[in-house]
Amino acid sequence: MEKEWMPHTRTAQLAMAKRWIKMLPDREKEWQIPKKMIKRMRELAENAEALHTIAESIEGTKEDDTRMKTAFHELVAYMKDIRAQIGFYTAADGSGLYRSRFPVRAS
After folding, report:
1. Of 6, 39, 97, 102, which residue is the least packed, with the fewest Cβ within 10 Å?
2. What does the alpha-carbon distance between residue 9 and residue 24 come to, in Å, rounded to a whole number?
3. Which residues lie closer than 8 Å to 65 by C-beta, 6 or more apart?
């Protein structure tokens, strides 16, 4: 099991969130994933992406940057919660999600 599985850059975190949003619905029944969990993650990812675009633009302000950081903090925290609740791990290359037989740590 990988020790540090969450990417460090916002771009990579967003890419991982998008992969999860595509992959989790396929496992919804088998892994008993609530639809509202996937919906909430999609909302958080869309919000983080929109705020990232604004904050990184020429017109971006310090307040925009603060809102973006908060959005990414919420997204990453939610992803860690999902991972811990459902008990899966991500392939080393980020290509897949696999169910673990053992408890998965959130961090």
Report:
1. 102
2. 22
3. 55
